[in-house]
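Each letter names a residue; the fold follows as tokens. Both lines appear below:
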Amino acid sequence: MAATVRRQRPRRLACWALMAVLLADLLALSDTLAVMSVDLGSESMKVAIVKPGVPMEIVLNKESRRKTPVTVTLKENERFFGDSAASMAIKNPKATLRYFQHLLGKQEGNPHVALYRARFPEHELGFDPQRQTVHFQISPQLQFSPEEVLGMVLNYSRSLAEDFAEQPIKDAVITVPAFFNQAERRAVLQAARMAGLKVLQLINDNTATALSYGVFRRKDINTTAQNVMFYDMGSGSTVCTIVTYQTVKTKEAGMQPQLQIRGVGFDRTLGGLEMELRLREHLARLFNKQRKGQGAKDVRENPRAMAKLLREANRLKTVLSANADHMAQIEGLMDDVDFKAKVTRAEFEELCADLFERVPGPVQQALQSAEMNLDEVEQVILVGGATRVPKVQEVLLKAVGKEELGKNINADEAAAMGAVYQAAALSKAFKVKPFVVRDAVIYPILVEFTREVEEEPGVRSLKHNKRVLFSRMGPYPQRKVITFNRYNHDFNFHINYGDLGFLGPEDLRVFGSQNLTTVKLKGVGESFKKYPDYESKGIKAHFNLDESGVLSLIRVESVFETLVEDSPEEESTLTKLGNTISSLFGGGTTPDTKENGTDTVQEEEESPAEGSKDEPGEQAELKEEAEAPVEDTSPPPPTEPKEAAVPEEEKATEKENEEKPEAQKPVVYRALVTRSGF
């Protein structure tokens, strides 16, 4: 009996060892399951996570609060974040950085840079000649760009999420204002890379809010379109969004709810911060008036005193939202002198009268971009902390003409919850109920190029052409292809923003340069020399506007076509040759990426823009790609152009030719073109 037990013991040990290995694998797998979202506001941020057993939970910071100040204090050997940094703003205002997101993607001459200097004169902004941007000069040896400071904040948010989830987290969805342009979005992505985060998507905060609203009201969405307006006034800006909810039929999951962004209006500088700055200035005047005749210095010249006044102004604004008056008081404001003054709500509203007049502006912009009127909007919902100011609600209610304003959403956490739902949908570790999201392009993007034409025999002139790639309020993500039909040599084209007439003069100055980049193509002439007897099908440039709203030029290729006799032997040889070339140069398909609630765009052709009609046969063809195989997008080496496989658009022609073995069959060759500048 004892011998039998000894013989079985190694088997038991082996089983236990195998179970231990499997358990270790499961634990290692679980470490990669959690995802996070960061709702990055001007004043504070909210972090949310999803992990097994914890669906959509707001992360508590070290002070057990649900929102964390976006504040950083930088010293020679120390860094403080969140509430710790906010408490040091009074002791060391120069080293405490706030509201730095307003400087992302801005050149030194941008009006927002001048506005930041006026609002926070204690910060020294240096000039970076290489990037033509600004940086914070903390000390002669210590300087940081706004992107680096944001990277520190994102890294801190990641540490909060990891402590809360008790496991490492890399995947994240980050919210950005809907009005962010390409430079600002790329700046956020750069900051996330510094923080070691893998950004699944930059989602517009208004879209995230709309998604959160729809997810929790899924049963109320049906085939009848429902138009809802979200009015979001935060600390730094205001965005008004019109969203249409309805169920649509999808290929994968049948009837599913969908939200579509129909109209967007915004004001970059209208928010709670500007109201607090007005109150701070009012309190500074009162303090100077109290000390008049004592030979005292102006309180505005003392950064610590102004930091105290700004903190008191923030508190005062909150209290006056619920009370008719309140006593502002600061102990030891300056030179050990206490400050105490009564401020009424009427005085506050008078100080901000011009700001309240701007409240209806984003509403009108949103209606205009959506081509709708207020009668078509069923409900207006308030989002953002500054909408709690009674005067804002009063002016907005009058502007929209509704009986009441909707307050049935968490004004502070809706965007964070919508973003973390999208993070779970984009992650491969979770399966969520589909919710189709169709976001909209705010700033149109077009391609401009100049071509030499012969209007009369012997008379040649230059002709400027424009082609709209992504129109205003068009859906994204999507891919498009533009074909240049009249070039047989190297040439350049420009990628610019389109018509920005909907922006005011000041917004245009803040927007900056309307030129995104200039693309220089090389190898076009060489490809024509390599295939002199083949028919050119043009030079095709493939563009992608991804889920984050970031534009990229995937590849440029010169396409040629020729006809060959279609015999069984030749067909077999050509098929093998095509398959070989396809495998060598990335022509094969890759697994389709998960839609994650994003609607795909059907292929279609667009007509040329007005004022840019070409002669017959000279039009630059513009097509959208949808559900096409993804080819190798790595930049081609600057060597001799290479051939590629037969493209998708030729499949229909091939099928017809297969039915006629005696007919000629077209074969397409693609020569990759090198480009620079994008």
Notes: DSSP finds 17 helices and 29 strands in the chain. The longest helix spans residues 2-30. The two ends are 78 Å apart (CA to CA). Confidence is low (pLDDT under 50) at residues 1-10, 18-31, 569-620, 626-662.
